[in-house]
Amino acid sequence: MSAELDTFPKLLLHHAEVRPKAPAMREKDYGIWLTSSWGAARAEIEALACGLHQRGFRRGDRLAIVGDNRPRLYWAMCAAQALGGVPDFLHHYEALVAEGRDFARRHPQFFADEVAKGRGGDVSIMCYTSGTTGNPKGVVLTFDNVLQSARNGAEFEGLSDKEDMLAYLPMAWVGDHIFSYAQSYAVGFCVSCPESGATVMQDLRELGPTYFFDASAIKRRAFHYFMGVARRAGIRILNGQPVPLGDRLLYALGELLVYGPLKNTLGLTRVRLAYTAGEAIGPDIFDFYRSLGVNLKQLYGSTEASVFVTIQPDGEIYADTVGKPAPGVE
């Protein structure tokens, strides 16, 4: 791992320098998507970090973050990390930012100096297990833990800074931390936050993410006409296997009349890669989504491993497996 970019605050400064105007995060407010660039995110996080410092937050301290998926909460996470603290899933956010901006004007080098003190072996975050076998447990992860997993997964799947991700899962869960935060900082893609939990499906359709994670069983959808063609041809086309000309033509017609509109209804029109994990969804639903042309993969992960334990490689995707060991996993 690069010693120069071994923490999320260092990656923030990197993206703010090389792609200052590129979108970093979006938030839907009163029906309107508001976009913040990497340059704007850096300025906000610097103000937050300076405000926290003014309030007495120091290296080694812990910051509790409670709330729905919002850019300001992800930024507060990075601000705490910039000061050498640990976000442990604010009070008077605007006042804190204003205080921080005033401090930053008087100490313009403070933020960059604090970021430079961070090391990959430092504690990055405390995430919580799901609690399926008992009470949820806090798992302490270092920057090296999280960034190595995020980078390995991104390289394995060929993620780029052109991806779009919707952040809708609980922030205290390691899955959201990897997909909505760590990989965004590692690669530089944009993460969008829905207006509320009740509008996730509508916001998903509007946004059309290219990268998507669903931790629960994907709901069954009624689908009849062209389903036989989809099952015969869709998966083979997705896997790059030969398909009879007749089925290929029928599938193209189905894409125009049925599969395309259905994917649009589900908000999956632009999805290039989608994961499902946790409860097994069953071969019928798994094959259904892949037959539509959605590159759905199963993975196995854990909080302690920073998510990725096994991943399904392209061309080796089956409903009854969770793939092969992820890069860096033995």
TrEMBL record:
Residues 14-87, 114-330 form the AMP-dependent synthetase/ligase domain. It holds the Pfam family AMP-binding. The keyword Membrane does not apply. One of its GO terms (cellular component) is membrane. Keywords: ATP-binding, Nucleotide-binding. InterPro entries: AMP-binding_CS (IPR020845), AMP-dep_synth/lig_dom (IPR000873), ANL_N_sf (IPR042099). GO terms for molecular function: ATP binding; long-chain fatty acid-CoA ligase activity. It comes from the Eukaryota. This is LACS7 protein. It comes from Symbiodinium necroappetens. The lineage of its organism: Eukaryota, Sar, Alveolata, Dinophyceae, Suessiales.
